[in-house]
Amino acid sequence: MSTPVIGMSRRAQLYRHVSRLEKSPITSLTSHITKRTDSMNVDKATIEQAPQKASELRASQVYKENLEFWHGAWNMCTKPYTKMPDLEYVPWLPERLRKASAQSILDLGCGSGWLSVYLSREGFTVTGIDVADHALELGKQWADMESLQIKFDAGDLGDLPYADNSFDAVVANSIIEHLPLSLAVVVMTKLKSVIRSGGTFIGCFDKVGTGPGEYFKLEDGTQVYTDKSRKGMMLRYFPDEELKELLTGWKIDEFKTLDSGTRFVVAHT
Ligand SMILES: C[S@@+](CC[C@H](N)C(=O)[O-])C[C@H]1O[C@@H](n2cnc3c(N)ncnc32)[C@H](O)[C@@H]1O
Questions:
Q1: Which CATH class is domain 28-268?
Q2: Distance CA 257, CA 252 (A)
Q3: Residue 22: predicted pLDDT
């Protein structure tokens, strides 16, 4: 990852290198290192095999390097960046959560916690989980600055440390697209029990990974970046149909594609 620029939002810092490389004309470089396979659909076999595949993936070197990327990226941030992102769907989140009568919220892959802070300010009881402890430390500092009670947990989404019925709702902003398919299936399955019956899932899925870049592909289409600035980072584009299949067992209430290409999805168990 490139050096963070002071004054840029954390999200912008994390994606700056992604968009720059996706716009750069280096397709020829990627063509020989990229093993192209078509995206798989989330069929019954994929779902059945997901726990085994996810477990193998999590034990692999490639996954270790992916987590190292996130630790390294966050370690470059020295203090909480306390500006909220200017995204059109941000105000929709508390509105949809209230409509669903949700109070306790899990912020999946919370990073340094802008969404946790935002929802806590709005009166929700929030727990954020992320693999990067330094990101969580920044989130805690921010919460302390505003005297907000937010629980920040360190953990891998592939092994969510929560009992059944722990939350009314889960929010997942720009995170599922960083997981290979098997892991995304495992996470979405586990979430069904971690939230109470009738609980809500709100996912905001960026349109990422659709441009050129220096990466190789895993068999499920996940791009594993090899360029210096984002070495190890995994990115997988989930087409609309696949997102819907990923939500097998959930009832989809809303599926909106925004001008930015982000898909805003609300579902419940
Ligand atoms: C693109 S950032 C999004 C952060 C935050 N949700 C936001 O909206 O700004 C992805 C986040 O997911 C975290 N992450 C990536 N893979 C993870 C995993 N397997 N388990 C837990 N957190 C993970 C990263 O540390 C990073 O904070």
A1: alpha beta
A2: 14
A3: 35
Tell me which of 115, 171, 175 to substitute to probe ligand 1's pocket, judged by most ligand atoms within 8 Å of the beta carbon. 175
pTM of the predicted structure, to 2 decimals: 0.88
pLDDT score at 136: 98
CA of 79 to the centre of ligand 1 (A): 17
Segments making up each domain of the chain, as ranges: 28-268
Residues 6+ apart with CB under 8 A from 18: 208, 213, 230, 233, 235
Residue whose entry in the numeric block shows the structure tokens 């592939």: 158
Instruction: Collect the ranges in the chain with pLDDT lower than 50.
Output: 1-40
Give distance in angstroms: CA of 239 to centre of ligand 1. 20
User: Quick one: pLDDT at residue 37?
Assistant: 44
Measured in Å, residue 104 CA sits from the centre of ligand 1 at 20
